[in-house]
Design brief:
about 400 residues, mainly alpha, Ubiquitin-like (UB roll), Receptor-associated Protein, 3 strands
Length: about 400
């Protein structure tokens, strides 16, 4: 949003102008960091309902952050100042919400704030992992290298997650269409055909009677089934917001045949990649474990990593702490031990992350190859059984006439 302000500077002169910020509070904070005493501030934008920039429509996606990180890394390598980097990108990015965020970051930098602190004020765009990586880069004086690490990591993470999610979209879509078609047939088509069979007075086969009975149930009570499904979905959604409920649901996700194995490799890849990226950037081991736990995305592994962090703080080695949890495979424990003994833990974990990335890619490719024939067979069997149960008695009735 654009705000007009009237203020007095430290020399007592009146100042007026405009500032872009996501809220009035942020605008006031940015102006105060410029040593201005604000006398009046108000929004200068008069927008119609059609012109409003709704937050959910201007959401900053992972892809936006990936591209942004690569651009920041390139500009830092070109020796462009931090303030100029964020001012330049704020004027160039297409996403309006991201442009506003970058503009605010620029204001914070102009007011003397470190980059990491300025980014931390926007947790919906820059994660805890991202902010801590930047802070480590500032402390080590290797900010351009840190943004390169971030850009590479986010690229890998985005590609891996996108591939896994896209592999699951197809079966979910096919299954949803299958159940929708079956529901329509059972509620609209079967009742009309079953009326003909019942009126004929001919004996109805058992399997046909089951289909007709199920069809009648959906016709008369289908609305209650739909309400129950919606209520169940809402309950699971609310359950996922609680700590214990999230732990249960995340545990179930890991126990689904084949899909659970895919998720397990995905989370292990994320753990190894996060941990190695932070260690190579100069983040301390304890801090790296805590941050990895916060961003892993699964309550089961989050709890494991919190326990590992507590054990390491108590004097245990990382490999011994990991080995106490069955969720951590032997190969990760063994390679971590090798990394500790050789002093190359960051590089060893990078190798492990690449290994799990390949495992996820292979699992996704295999899943995609298996899904199509399995879905075709299941759809054919479902529709075939339904039609056979209804059409065969009709053929018998026609033959009797």
């Amino acid at each position: 949003m654009l705000f007009s302000y009237h203020a007095i500077d430290k020399d007592g002169h009146e100042r007026e102008g405009t500032i872009e910020a996501p809220s009035k509070e942020v605008a006031v904070s940015a102006l105060q960091r410029r040593s201005l005493i604000i006398s009046a501030i108000e929004s200068s934008e008069k927008r119609s309902l059609l012109e409003m920039n709704f937050t959910f429509l201007g959401r900053v996606s992972n892809k936006d952050v990936v591209i942004l990180s690569r651009q920041i890394a390139t500009l830092f390598e070109a020796q462009v100042s931090a303030l100029r980097v964020f001012r330049l990108l704020a004027s160039e990015v297409e996403n309006k919400q991201l442009a506003t965020v970058l503009s605010t970051v620029g204001d914070d930098l102009q007011g003397g704030s470190p980059i990491s602190k300025a980014l931390a004020r926007h947790p919906k765009v820059f994660s805890t992992f991202y902010v801590n990586m930047v802070r480590a880069g500032e402390e080590s004086g290797k900010l351009s290298e840190t943004f390169n690490y971030l850009a590479d990591y986010l690229d890998r993470s985005y590609d891996l997650i996108s591939k896994a999610e896209n592999a699951l979209i197809y079966p979910i879509f096919v299954i949803a269409v299958f159940f929708a078609v079956m529901a329509l047939m059972l509620t609209l088509v079967i009742p009309k055909i079953s009326a003909v069979l019942v009126d004929s007075g001919q004996p109805i086969p058992v399997y046909t009677g089951i289909i007709i009975g199920f069809s009648n149930f959906l016709v008369h009570y289908g609305i209650f089934v739909l309400i129950a499904l919606i209520a169940g979905g809402f309950y699971l959604w609310q359950l996922g917001k609680t700590e214990n409920g999230k732990l249960v649901l995340d545990g179930l996700k890991l126990n689904v045949p084949y899909i659970g194995d895919l998720y397990e490799k995905l989370y292990l890849s994320r753990i190894a990649d996060n941990f190695s990226t932070m260690l190579l950037s100069g983040v301390s081991v304890i801090e790296a474990i805590d941050i990895t736990a916060a961003v892993v995305g699964n309550s089961v592994y989050e709890r494991v990593l919190h326990d590992v962090g507590a054990d390491v703080k108590g004097g245990s080695s990382i490999s011994d702490a990991l080995g106490r949890h069955s969720e951590m495979p032997g190969i990760m424990v063994a390679m971590t031990k090798v990394g500790e003994e050789t002093g190359e833990l960051g590089k060893i974990l990078t190798t492990l992350a690449k290994f799990y990335n390949r495992e996820v890619s292979t699992a996704v490719d295999t899943l995609v190859d298996l899904i199509e024939p399995i879905m075709i067979v299941l759809l054919g069997l479902g529709v075939g059984v339904l039609l056979a149960a209804i059409l065969l008695p009709i053929y018998n009735l026609a033959g009797a006439i």
